[in-house]
Design goal:
- It contains no helices and 30 strands.
- The protein is mainly beta and 397 residues long.
- The strands form 9 sheets. It has a 4-stranded antiparallel β-sheet, with no helix packed on it. A 4-stranded antiparallel β-sheet has the order 6-7-10-11, with no helix packed on it.
- The N terminus is likely disordered.
Length: 397
C-alpha cells in the first residue's frame, strides 16, 4: 500500500491506542501546479501515477506520468499523455494495459470552456506508450467505470453538463471490450445518476447506489437519492436493490472478504459539516444495516488487509474489524511540515494545497471526491516540483 499523502498534516486523536506502523517511501516529483490524478498498481508490481497540470496563464492543460518501483523505492518518468483524451477512471485491463476514460477539465479561463473530456485512451507499461482507443458514444464526467469478470468495462451514468450550466445526470450505460476495441450500449439505469457509487460483488454483479438524479426526470434540477440497483452482466439487466436509509453522494464502498459491502459517507448539514455514516450491505439478504462509524469523517476508499480488516487513511489512519464491528486507530503517517514555497502559477492556495485554482473555473456541483470520477481539479493537491512525502503502511493486531 503506497498512499500519496498530499496537503494538510495528518493527526491522530491522542486518546486512542495506535497499531501498525509506517515507513517512508520516495516522493514523486510533481510539476508546479500539478495534481495527482490517480495511481494504480500494474501487473509487474510497479505503480503508475498520473498527474494533470490544469490550464493557466502558464500554458495549456497537459499531463505527466511517473512509475514507482517498490523494490528500489524509486520513481522514474513515464511517457506524458493528453488529459483531454480521457484521464479518469483508471482500470488495469487483463492484458496489463491501463484504460482511462471520461474526466472534467477547463481549457481556458472562462467557465464555458469547462466540460467532459474526450473519450478513452490506454497506457501500455511494456512499451511506455499511450494510445487512443475507440471512443465511447457519450462524453461524460462524474461517472463510474468497473472492470467486469469477463474482461469488459462497464461505464455507468455520469453528467454531460458543461461550463456553468446546472448538472444533467444521465442513465446511459456503455460496455467496452478491449479485445475488439468496441463500445456497445448496455441496458440503461432506471434513472439518471451522477456522483454515484459502484462496487463489483463477489458473484460478478454490479451494485450501484446513491448519487444525484434529475428532478423531475430529464430536467436540469437535481437532488440526492438513496436508491440502489444491481446490474447482471450475464443478462444485461438492472434490478432494484434495497435503498439506503438516507441519500448519499460520492460515498466510499469497500468489498469485504465475506462478500458484504462496507459503505462510508457523510450526511451533510446546513452548517457545512455532516454526520459520519457507516453501513453494511448484505447481497444475499439484499439488506443495508447500520455499522459503527469511524470517529472522524473523510478518507478514501478502504484497503482490505490480508486478515480481513479495512484500513482507511485521511485524516489520520483507522482500522475497521468487520467481524466485531469496531474501529481502532492505526499509527498515523508521520506529520510533515511543508517547506515554504511560492504560490502556484494557477493561483491555488499553496499553503494548504486544498483550494481549487482561482484561475480555473469550477462548478459547485462538480466536486468529485474520488479521482475515479473525473475531475483533475479535485484529485490531489497543488504542489511544487519538490514532490510530496510518501508512506507505506504495515498493520498489526
Amino acid at each position: 500500500l503506497l498512499p500519496l499523502l498530499l496537503g494538510a498534516p495528518l493527526v491522530r486523536p491522542p486518546a486512542a491506542r495506535a497499531v501498525g506502523g509506517w515507513t517512508p517511501a520516495a516522493p514523486p516529483a510533481i510539476p508546479q501546479g500539478g495534481r495527482v490524478n490517480g495511481a494504480i498498481v500494474l501487473q509487474d508490481g510497479r505503480v503508475l501515477a498520473t498527474i494533470v497540470i490544469p490550464f493557466s496563464s502558464e500554458g495549456p492543460v497537459r499531463g505527466t506520468a511517473q512509475l514507482y518501483d517498490p523494490a528500489a523505492d524509486r520513481w522514474s518518468p513515464a511517457a506524458p499523455f493528453d488529459p483531454l483524451a480521457g484521464h479518469a477512471n483508471p482500470l488495469r485491463l487483463p492484458d496489463g494495459r491501463v484504460l482511462f476514460t471520461s474526466g472534467w477539465l477547463c481549457t481556458a479561463l472562462n467557465p464555458s470552456s469547462c466540460g467532459p473530456t474526450g473519450g478513452a485512451q490506454v497506457y501500455d507499461p511494456a512499451s511506455d506508450r499511450w494510445a487512443p482507443v475507440a471512443q465511447p458514444h457519450i462524453r461524460r464526467h462524474s461517472d463510474t467505470a468497473t472492470l467486469l469478470p469477463d474482461g469488459t468495462v462497464l461505464v455507468v451514468g455520469g453528467d454531460t453538463g458543461r461550463g456553468p450550466a446546472p448538472p444533467f445526470p444521465i442513465s446511459v450505460v456503455e460496455r467496452y471490450d478491449p479485445r475488439t476495441d468496441r463500445w456497445t450500449d448496455a441496458a440503461p439505469l432506471s434513472l439518471g445518476r451522477a456522483h454515484h457509487s459502484a462496487v463489483l460483488l463477489r458473484d460478478g454483479r454490479l451494485l450501484v447506489f446513491g448519487g444525484h438524479t434529475s428532478t423531475p426526470a430529464g430536467s436540469y434540477s437535481s437532488a440526492s437519492v438513496a436508491t440502489a440497483e444491481i446490474y447482471d452482466p450475464a443478462t444485461d439487466r438492472w434490478t432494484p436493490a434495497a435503498s439506503l436509509d438516507t441519500p448519499l453522494t460520492n460515498a466510499r464502498p469497500t468489498l469485504l472478504q465475506d462478500g458484504r459491502v462496507l459503505l462510508l459517507g457523510t450526511r451533510p448539514d446546513a452548517a457545512g459539516g455532516g454526520e459520519v455514516l457507516a453501513r453494511l450491505y448484505d447481497p444475499a439478504a439484499d439488506r443495508w444495516s447500520p455499522a459503527t462509524p469511524p470517529a472522524a469523517p473523510g478518507g478514501g476508499p478502504g484497503s482490505v488487509l490480508p486478515d480481513g480488516r479495512v484500513l482507511v487513511v485521511g485524516p489520520g489512519a483507522r482500522l475497521y474489524d468487520p467481524a466485531r464491528d469496531i474501529w481502532a486507530d492505526a499509527a498515523p503517517p508521520p506529520t510533515r511540515t511543508p517547506a515554504p514555497r511560492p504560490c502556484c502559477a494557477t493561483g491555488a492556495s499553496c499553503s494548504s494545497g486544498r483550494a481549487a485554482p482561482k484561475s480555473t473555473p469550477t462548478h459547485p456541483s462538480r466536486a468529485p471526491a474520488s479521482p475515479r470520477r473525473g475531475s483533475a481539479s479535485a484529485g490531489g493537491s497543488s504542489t511544487t516540483g519538490r514532490g510530496t512525502a510518501g508512506w507505506r503502511a504495515t498493520a498489526s493486531r
